[in-house]
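Researcher: For the annotation table, I need structure tokens for Helix-turn-helix domain-containing protein. Please keep the output clean. Sequence:
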Amino acid sequence: MREFADRLRVVRRSMGLNQADFAALGGVVMNSQNQYEAAATEPKATYLLNLAAHGVDVGFILTGRRSPDSLPVEVIALATVIGELPSSVRAPMGAALKMLGDVLQHPEELETDVRSLHETLLEYRGPDRR
């Protein structure tokens, strides 16, 4: 349930909405939205159907997998560029992007993540370039 709550929060924030406005899309009050994002309670199907009716990628919230038509054009373009890179570059780039996403979701862990990112980039450059 924690992963569901985290994905729900990610989607809400990516839409630039506060809890009250997102709750309204789902047909619930802000307190309910807060409880869903805290993984304290589970929403009813009508909430998810209401979100879907407003263009929210409910499949991603439920499963963690985005439907291709729900991705912004910028994300598809970035994925295309990354997909064309050699695998030796894609792996460290993927790790760096994941770390960046983690930092954005958990800024309190920034110092640790910056060190990890630095190490990942050093590995990409190779041992002879350190």
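Researcher: And a one-line annotation?
Model: Helices lie at 2-14, 19-26, 30-37, 45-53, 58-63, 73-83, 87-105, 110-125.
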